[in-house]
Known about the structure:
Layout: E1 2-7, E2 10-12, E3 18-26, E4 30-39, E5 46-52, E6 57-59, E7 67-72, E8 77-82, E9 91-100, E10 109-112, E11 116-120
Amino acid sequence: QVQLAESGGGLVQPGGSLRLSCAASGSIFSIKAMAWYRQAPGKERELVAAISSDGSTNYADSVKGRFTISRDNAKNTEYLQMNSLKPEDTAVYYCNAVVRPWILPANYVDYWGQGTQVTVSS
């Protein structure tokens, strides 16, 4: 079993910054990709940013230039640096990891964190 522990959410004023962290623990042979999703009230969950094992990234258009995703492979941890936050960034942010738990079988499993609330308001 794999656990994803998120931290760093909270209340911030428009224009402010927050840094989210997500640490994966448990049975982990390798992590193929990690990502952040978010879900605002009344809306569907959407991809915010993703990073592969080789460091390549992709971002939702709404956060490009403001958010930066990164990962520390040695610590099985990913980060989301969020700058110039806007009220429309308010949502529950979820960590996601595509994990290969064992050497064999060589299959990957999708895991999710519990979510952390980010509120952008004056």
